[in-house]
Every structure is written in C-alpha cells, then in structure tokens.
User: Fold this.
Amino acid sequence: MTLTGRAALLALAGALIVAVFGTGIALLAVNAVILLAIAGDLILAASLGQLQVSRSGDAKIHLGQPGTVTVTVVNPGRRRLRGVVRDGWRPSAGARPGRARIDLPAGSRARLTTTLTPQRRGDFTAGLVTIRSLGPLGLAGRQRSLPAPLTVRVLPPFLSRKHLPEKLARLRELDGQHKSMLRGQGSEFDSLRAYVLGDDVRSIDWRSSARRSDVVVRTWRPERDRRIVIVLDTGRTSAGRVGGIPRLDASMDAALLLAALATRAGDRVDLLAADRRVRARVVGAGRGAVLASFTSELALLEPDLVESDIALMTAAVLGIARQRCLVVLLTDLNPAAIEQGLLPHVHRLSSKHQVLLAAVADPRVAEMAAGRSDATAVYEAAAAVTAQAGRTHIGALLRRSGVEVVDAPPDRLPPALADAYLSLKAAGRL
Assistant:
C-alpha cells in the first residue's frame, strides 16, 4: 500500500475540523471518514498482479548524445489503471523524465518514452519499472516493481569525426584523384603523364619518353592494403585528466579518427588495449565493420591504476603482426615510464615495424612555462620548463630508436596523428 500527498492533505483538513470542534466524537468521525476513503481507494485501484512490462529502444548510444528507450505496459486486468510509472536507471544514465503518469483502460497497452543522455561510457543495465496504481480519489494505491531487462552500451563520442573530411581530401590528393601527385619511395605505380616544371627528374620514364618523343613521368599512389595495429595503453598514466577528460578518452578519439581514415585508404586496422593484460582486441574485422567493432570494444575500457607491461604489449603486437606494418602506440610521454618501460623493448618493434608513438600533452604546462607574474608563477614556470625538457629529451631518444613521435593537446592529437599517418603513407614508409 502507498499513500499520496492527497491523503496527507485530507488528514490535515481533518485535523483542522477536530481543532474547531474539539470533541472526541469529531475526532472519531474524521478518522473514520479518512480510513474509509483510503480503504475505498485501495479496493478500487487496479490490480498489479497480472500487469506486464517490457523495454525496447536504442541498444547503443554515443556518450553525450540522446537515445530513447520505450517502456510498454500491458493491462490485462478488468479495471482501468490510473497511476504513475517510474523507469529506473542509474543517475549517470541521465534518464528523463524520471516519472510519467499513466491512464490505461482494461485490456489495452501504453508506451512511455524515456530519453537517456549518458555521462559515462560502458554498459548500462536498466533497473526495475515501478508502477503505482491509484484509486479514483488519488488518496492511496498499490505499488509493484517489475523487471524489464535491457542493456544499453554507451560508446565513445568520436568528437574528432569533424576532422575526417579534411583528412580524406588530403588522402584523395595522395591517391592521385586530384591534380596534385606525390611520389613516395616504395609507392605503387599509377600512370604516365607529361612532364611539367617542378617534377622530380627521378620520376621520368625514359623508355616511354623515347617512344613518344616527349618527356613523360611516372605518377604514383600510396600503397594500399597495408596493416596498422593501434595499441592503447590503459595503465595508470592513462587515468590522468588533461583538459577535464582522461588521457585514455583522448587517445580513443585519436584512434577512432585514424581507424576511419586508414579504412577509407584501403588499409587494414587492428586494435589492442593492454596494461598488465590485454583488455580489448579487435583483429581481422572487415573494413565495413572496423569502426563499429572498435567503438563497441572501447566503450568498456577504463584505466587501471597499475604500471603497464610493455613486454606484454610488444609480445601481443608481434604475435598478430608477422609482416611489416605500422604500430601506433597511444601512451603518455612520461620520461620515467618510457625509459624504464618502452625503451628497453622498442628495438624489438622498430626493427620489424614502423612505430609511431602518440601522446596527450597538457596545454596547462605550456601556460605555466610562460608565467612570470609573481614569485609563485616563476616557480611554476621552472617546473613546467623542466617537464617540457624531459618530454623533449625522451622524444629525441625515441626518434633515435626509429620511432616517430606525436605530442599534442587533447583537441589537436587526433588530427596530428592523422597527419603523421598520411605523411608516412606519402613517403612510402608503411
């Protein structure tokens, strides 16, 4: 049994009547009327014993984007159901509205829509649907909570998608679909065209020129069907927040843009996420399913506060990449972690593959390095300059080991990583 605010108001009105008359008979009469009204409401309220509820709607929603879930209520009883329905979700699901009124005739069904705007990634399991059946007076009613199973997976937001058209335009230039033709060592032969001033003389096809009595050059296009292995470090350094978001989320965004671009370029893209163990693995997904597979796996990833095992990551990459490929490692450019973890193992990767390391830089450090307003700012600037020098030094060590390095703030990391990929592709270094 449940009582409503109307019952409280009725009790308050009864108390006023008792206060006016001030007799025991008035008290008994008022209480009798209130109890009879509540009992009548309970008796006349629709039974919830045979009620049926179910949920349907969006199974996948991008973080921060709205999705809809529909609750279907079936009333097979003989009485009209008047009351309130509460669709139960955890607070971070952002369910609106929390409650909805329902007026459902006997033998019919109703559909109630809940809008979810989740604030976290991962799987959200729906809670119970609570239904309150009220009597005609709205004083009291019956209440029951029923299960209606549904799981909604909240995917990474992929905010860097806005950069994809620009990168695809550059890719088309590399592919020779625009007038701009770029030659890279090891690129695939595309066609012949007349020589123009500024062309690389190494591209001249002397035999074809002799046959045509004109100077012609070979045009090239970047290799297709290359393999890219994206490795996400989910260790303790990925939990640090830069610009209000974890490093891991910024790395995910960069990985999704790179995967979308590389897939359109005709390359195969695989994914590994690891710290002390492999937490996600997408290998051999079809080109049409790469993004869907990546986002589904990335949705469940969370940083683990442990030191990453670089030897494990290296072994995992070498285990799936037998032939030369591009290995993109998304991690933090932390000098201590790199010197003790990555540098002792990087030669195993760089000797067989092209390695590209991408890291999230903190723009706040650059701001602190420029501060000179007071003594505190000067000390902060000194610390920031020391941190920048450490990152620069470790980047130089990695480059000497054959590793390309991209170090950019969260909003610039995805396009910077895409540009690095396109530059390697144009140079024929994949």
The two ends are 70 Å apart (CA to CA).
